[in-house]
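Ligand: iron/sulfur cluster. Inputs:
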Amino acid sequence: MNYSIEEQRVLCALPDLLLPWYAKNKRDLPWRADTDPYRILVSEIMLQQTRVEAVKEHYVRFLASLPTVNALASCPKEKLMKLWEGLGYYSRALNLQKAAQQIVAAGGFPKTYEGLLSLAGVGTYTAGAVASIAFSIPVPAVDGNVVRVLSRLFGNRENQDVLRKYYTDRLTGVYPKENCGDFTQSLMELGATVCLPRSPKCILCPLFAHCLTKSDALPMRKPKYERKKVDLTVFVLLTPKGVALTTRDNGVLKGMKQFPNEERFLSVQELTERLNSFGFENFTVLSERPHRHIFTHLEWNMKAFFIKTNDAPLSFSYYPAETIGKEIALPSAFRWCVEFFD
Ligand code: SF4
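Predicted complex:
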């Protein structure tokens, strides 16, 4: 992609334009209290795909319970899932713990961009954010917010994936010698509070005089994707030993507890056959309830069967009904079932 002398001039001026604005206007967020790499890493992983307001409370609770990388590395999985409950995308929590274990095994936090990039669940954006904020390394962190700001500033109509790479390269050369973390955060902050996806507050923008767009006409929107729809039969099995749960071993919600389920709707006969194959011989179907759960790229049309049985085959784990969704973390896709326990 070609760039003009004017684009280069404005890019070089960005630190001088943004750092004073950021110092005056930055929000008071809990992860901005210090530059401890563990705390920055936790915040960046939580903030992926999740709103700042939703993260704040979880972040404080998570760090009160797991204040060090060692504490996270050795945290029991049940407790970790519980602390992550409500943030969704649970694979992030599992990867975060893997990263903590890598850090502990290596004897400390990697202090280079490449070292950070080698941690589980850490991509170019997160590595750039932690490197610049925690270690003041001049590496950019270009997410959707930053692409939005820069594509509007320079009137660039390329697609967002191309721009992400392009601006990562272009910003690298203009990082200030000091305050690298503040520069990274100033771009993010401008995208989050002024250069909003819809109706940007251009009049308040420190880049107004240089901006070629001054509206929400850019970036070019990605074509809308079709959300995949899946039918799901859910077995809520109420046994004398407690309620039967399994652990998801792949796909969405991997590693989380769930009620046993199957990816299609079963006929009454198939339901009986399936329960028999699980080891349940004597059972009564108490009720059947429909529910729809929507993920970003996936929609589950669920049909849950609430089943009372005296059997308790060994292939399941059993938990007291009153602990499920409380001490025992359960993703919201299944948590709605809890209110129908009898
Ligand atoms: S002037 Fe408006 S569109 Fe341009 S960067 Fe600032 S807020 Fe975004």
